[in-house]
Design brief:
The protein is of the alpha+beta class and about 450 residues long. It contains eleven helices and 23 strands. The strands form five sheets. Strands 5, 6, 7, 8, 9, 10, 11, 14 and 17 form a nine-stranded antiparallel beta sheet that branches. α4 crosses α8 and α8 packs across α9. It starts with 6 loop residues before the first helix and ends in a 25-residue tail after the last strand. The relative contact order is 0.12. The structure holds flavin mononucleotide and manganese (II) ion. The site of manganese (II) ion (MN) has 5 residues, from loops.
């Protein structure tokens, strides 16, 4: 049985666990809420519920809800150490959604002239962001060809009272659906869910092929079908218990500059052409909680949310090469994406090189692969560096592959969607274990006076 039923139920659950801080001090949506998220991200702090938002009476803003692994573990309802194994099972469970006639998300309906995004406390996050962004809206849309649903998180820049960008390039499914609708000369109806059940947020990040409806994975994670109400102005449904839904349709062929925006790389991405969404209705609860999140220098909640899907994907990839992959770390300094450390139990001398090539070939943003033996803790930078210092010769053990197609916002790449990749084999040669034996002092475990 699950301990919470929806987004605000999760906030109550966090409060019971002493992991939610209510902030009564008045805050401005410009920087002040994001500053709070930055602080809890850096101090392993609680989630935040701002209850007094300047110029937005009646609203509350939840922030930093996934800022730390501890918070994510609470959302998944397992101890932190079991999170990966648990998540890997959850990824494979599916429960179809259930249509219902009404729900709290439609207690208030704003349509036509009433639509005004300036009434919503949308947050300005980082210093050089050009304005307010919806950063953790979960977009639910249907494939115009197949009718199958799709979930993802795509940031939206507020352009005016009823206009937003949607940053969804075609290598993400939503971008593909927008392009497919445009091929038919049409806009794509999109429901953006804000204050979604955490399982919907987590499921939106699962790496599954186009055509697999992640809302069904959210149901599997919850252990109950996600209940969906028909939207008021578009032919899509949305979760009945969300805090709010922005209903809208993309304007076919329209693109506007979006950015620079503080990205997961910890740098600002250049302004890019993004699709435009015309808001057709906003539906919400009577006393809605707006939800925002921070992306920026690692570690932010963006990183926390992508760590598990990336680990699963990397493990599957390595397992194709070596069944006995021992451990994997997508490193925090490597943005949980650019640097992967893998430990293996070598059975052939050059296996590490196959692992390096397999991972660089995935195209999911991996730029550096470090392979170590199974006596090295992949999550400990000191141990990994020690392996590099003592088990690796650069002229023999480094592989550099120029010009790979790669989805990354790495500001160092010379051409968009292209990167060089490199790998380091820091495993010891197989026949020569003695020279590499770790020095140990006998009896440390028996010491009882420290
Ligand atoms: C907080 C957060 C913000 C994100 N923002 C964006 C974004 O603005 N644009 C984008 O294309 N992907 C963004 N992503 C990544 C996508 O949501 C993610 O890759 C998702 O799995 C895509 O769904 P799909 O597999 O159906 O394409 C974000 C992820 C998180 C956790
Ligand atoms: Mn998808």
């Amino acid at each position: 049985m699950t301990e919470y039923a929806d987004f605000r139920g999760f906030l109550d659950f966090l409060e019971k666990k002493d992991k939610l801080l209510r902030v009564q001090t008045e805050v401005d949506t410009r920087f002040e809420i994001a500053a709070g998220i930055r602080k809890v991200s850096d101090t392993d702090g609680p989630a935040l519920l701002y209850e007094n938002i300047k110029n937005h009476p009646g609203w509350r803003v939840a922030a930093g809800v996934f800022a730390t692994r501890k918070l994510l573990a609470l959302a998944l309802e397992v101890p932190e150490e079991q999170m990966l194994e648990h998540y890997e099972q959850l990824e494979k469970k599916f429960l179809p959604t259930k249509e219902v006639a009404s729900g709290p998300v439609q207690e208030v309906v704003l349509s036509g002239e009433e639509v005004d995004l300036s009434r919503v406390p949308i947050v300005v996050h980082s210093e050089l962001d050009p304005g307010a962004y919806v950063t953790i809206g979960v977009q639910f849309a249907k494939d115009p060809e197949t009718g199958l649903g799709n979930l993802g998180i795509h940031r939206m820049f507020v352009l005016g009272k009823n206009r937003l960008t949607v940053w969804a390039p075609p290598d993400h499914h939503l971008g593909r659906l927008i392009a497919k609708a445009e091929d038919q000369g049409q806009g794509l109806p999109i429901a953006t869910i804000i204050g979604a059940d955490p399982r919907i947020v987590i499921a939106s990040q699962v790496k599954v092929p186009l055509g697999v409806d992640e809302m069904e994975i959210a149901g599997g994670m919850k252990g109950a079908p996600i209940e969906m109400v028909p939207c008021k102005s578009i032919p899509v449904s949305a979760p009945a218990d969300a805090e709010m839904v922005i209903e809208g349709v993309t304007l076919p062929g329209e693109r506007v500059p979006d950015g620079p925006f503080a990205e997961y790389t910890g740098c600002y991405s250049a302004a890019k052409d993004a699709a435009v969404l015309e808001v057709t209705a906003i539906t919400m609860r009577k006393n809605p909680i707006y939800h925002t999140c921070l992306t920026g220098l690692p570690v932010t909640e963006n990183h926390v949310l992508i760590e598990l899907p990336n680990l699963v994907r990397v493990r599957q990839e390595v397992q194709k090469t070596i069944p006995e992959v021992y451990d994997i770390c997508v490193t925090p300094g490597g943005t949980f994406r650019h640097h992967v450390v893998v430990s293996i139990r070598k059975r052939h001398e050059e296996e590490a090189r196959n692992v390096i090539l397999a991972l660089l070939a995935t195209g999911i943003g991996i730029k550096l692969v470090t392979v170590v033996d199974d006596d090295i803790d992949v999550t400990d930078p000191l141990e990994v560096e020690w392996a590099l210092s003592t088990r690796m010769q650069p002229d023999r053990d480094i592989i550099i592959i120029p010009r790979l197609t790669c989805s990354t916002l790495d500001p160092s790449v010379p051409v968009a969607r292209t990167t060089a990749g490199w790998g380091i084999d820091a495993t010891k040669p197989m026949g020569d274990q003695k020279r590499f034996e770790k020095v140990r002092v006998p009896g440390v475990d028996q010491i009882d006076y420290l």
